[in-house]
């Protein structure tokens, strides 16, 4: 008189579908006992109780008619819930179980509240309600069952004796025990299957995360984040935005490539790209691509802090790259690379077309437009260690960064000559209070950024400088004949 108490099919089937490609036939999931089978089992054991009770005169003879109803109802319920409009009803299982509670309560009432059979049927009902719908379903089912019991007793009257014959009691207890054990077995198997599926899904999720992080190496972090969070669709679409565009390359790289072995050159180039990428990401730049020894970065998409802040972040990044290049050049020199590699940079700000370009099966997230051409042109015109910016960029950063007028240039795509400016340094770092100092001579190189030095490092640096100063003074005092070299 009740449906199967457990149905985790939705969860287990979803897990199975998600893992079917990976797991194939290795899954050990056990399918749940369907409502149809569970209801047949419940009503069959109830029919057995009725027959034995009638044979032992515990119930009235006319209750044998309930046997036919008990055997037919599971099939009727199956047809109603699978082949009619009811199959689209939400929570149909819970609703059908409430109907079963009414039928069960009616049966208990018709038997006149004979103790053991009544308790057995009531236990099957409450067991099913608790597992299928929890406390709320149990309360609703118990209420309906109690109402049906009252109506049944009012119709048939109470039994002459609430005690049932021994065989009737034993059959009721056994029938209820069989139902509970069978459904509990399926519940246990489903719980195991669900835990296995959960573990497999978690493993697959971890594998997917690891794979996504590997794939993220081929995209700028901002673009990867917007795609994997669902903020951006992977389709061919573009938009117009005002961006700050940055180009850089290494002056002297061509000559160096002729002197070094390819493996050593590759290692040097990757070291350079790694250092510059860290600087770009620290300032929020979207790394577009690496071409040879060139880097292309833009600011303002997918996220923007405003035109002025984007331009300032771009130029700040360029200044930081120039400083970082000097540090790397010192390291390369200690590794035996004598060619003085220097970076040159160009920055332009203006409207560009940004988005996915290419084909449906292979696309590239990039930007196009005359401002991109201008930034590339400025980079090619820059001297080693120089940062050239367009007038638009200069107008956005001039209050915080010192720039020097470099005149005008003619660029394809621009009808008028374009004013350009050279970035000197942050205004806060100009004069005696500047945080960055540099001195480079043959046999000596110093790059100092006091803002980044900790107190512990400060003491070690002071000791090193004092030792170097003492060494220079002692060598200066020696006569020429005492010097080596």
UniProtKB/TrEMBL annotation:
It holds the Pfam family Guanylate_cyc. CDD domains: CHD. Keywords: Membrane, Transmembrane, Transmembrane helix. SMART domains: CYCc. The chain crosses the membrane at residues 40-56, 62-80, 101-126, 138-159, 166-186. InterPro entries: A/G_cyclase, Adenylyl/Guanylyl_Cyclase_3/4, MASE2, Nucleotide_cyclase. Residues 244-379 form the Guanylate cyclase domain. One of its GO terms (biological process) is cAMP biosynthetic process. One of its GO terms (molecular function) is adenylate cyclase activity. PANTHER family: ADENYLATE CYCLASE, TERMINAL-DIFFERENTIATION SPECIFIC-RELATED (PTHR43081), BLL7624 PROTEIN (PTHR43081:SF18). This is Adenylate cyclase, class 3. It comes from Marinobacter pelagius.
